[in-house]
Amino acid sequence: MRVEILGSGGAVTIPRPGCSCAVCIEAREKGVPYSRSGPSVFIHGPDILIDTPEESKDQINRAGIMDINAGLYSHWHPDHTAGRRMWETRNFEFRSWPKRAITTPIYVPESAWADFEKWYGIADQFRWLEGQGSVEIHRMVDHVPITISGATVTPIALVHENAHAFLIEFEAKRVLIAMDETHYWEPGDLGPLDLAVLPLGVFPFHPWTGERKMPEEFTKGPARKTRYEQTLVHIEQLQARQTVLIHIEEMEGLNHDELVRLGERDGWTIGFDGQTVEV
């Protein structure tokens, strides 16, 4: 099994449009790994795509991915779902007669689907795609494993935003993918893991200079995002053989080199767009 980080950014990608900070200027000049598109992961082997940010079709093209056996969605947030029309441009034959389409099964945890019904017209748009034959929607039950292309996939409920992580088991390898929203989550015993992909978390203070990065009012409890310190606790609890951190926000003001140094200090690897991890 091979895990590819299609997009390592967060809700505000790098470079941010119109931003002239040092991190964004460098990202425009140098590109990847300094630039970061929205959060998405592809599991080679079972060929499963997790989340479709705005840049999804470009990510798929850049990676040269031809086969997608299924799509998973972790939660409703736009940075994880707004590229959903990729399924139409990939699967639907616009000028065929009779009309025809490739149909990709899409798996969404039940509580996440309830949010799809509430926000941004996501459920309606997926029903449209389903009606044209581009996708087929399946709802997942928390902690109940299903089989996709020979892989066992178990949705693991997190605490906030009806978000979910996914435990993927394939050919004796076990991978945990948690795209976002891990604050207040207690992983419990998930067994041995070959790889954990987790969100970096946010930094109230710059990890090297100590400079305040968030207004004090924003950091008062309860926490609305995972703090970096909580991510370190999760890494210790999970004890995966490899840990890769993604969902890096432009607002952190940290470039790729600084994140590499931080990972070397604290025992994890920074994810970047196009990165592949052999499991």
UniProtKB/TrEMBL annotation:
<dbReference type="InterPro" id="IPR001279">
    <property type="entry name" value="Metallo-B-lactamas"/>
</dbReference>
<dbReference type="InterPro" id="IPR036866">
    <property type="entry name" value="RibonucZ/Hydroxyglut_hydro"/>
</dbReference>
<protein>
    <submittedName>
        <fullName>Unannotated protein</fullName>
    </submittedName>
</protein>
<feature type="domain" description="Metallo-beta-lactamase">
    <location>
        <begin position="61"/>
        <end position="248"/>
    </location>
</feature>
<dbReference type="Pfam" id="PF12706">
    <property type="entry name" value="Lactamase_B_2"/>
</dbReference>
